[in-house]
Design goal:
- This protein has 2 domains: about 60 residues, 434 Repressor (Amino-terminal Domain) (Orthogonal Bundle); about 35 residues, no CATH class.
- The protein has 5 helices and 3 strands; from the N terminus they run αααααβββ.
- Helix 2 packs across helix 3.
- The chain binds zinc ion.
- The site of zinc ion has 8 residues, from loops.
- Zinc ion binds next to loops.
Amino acid sequence: MSVFGSYLAAQREKLGLTQRQVASEIGISQPAYQAWETGKASPTVKHLCRLQKTLKVNGDVCLDLMGMDITPVIVERACVECDSVYKGGIYCPKCGKSSGEPVK
Ligand SMILES: [Zn+2]
């Protein structure tokens, strides 16, 4: 059982819900939900949102327990107007024009 799975199971038992009840709330099958608790599979972001409501769990904690890096990806962009390369937001800090293309 994974750390994330244990967390789900503990939270589910605390609320007195069965795996089937949680699965139907989320809109998946009971075996699919069971796979999350046993660590055989991980929920998608869409399912994680529903899981937060159903099991009253914290999404950030879930991602952390699943071993996912929740640090935003800093993309390097090249401005299409002035060719300056910058990191972060959409807008070019030099000319203020939008839509820098991500540098591959
Ligand atoms: Zn620019």
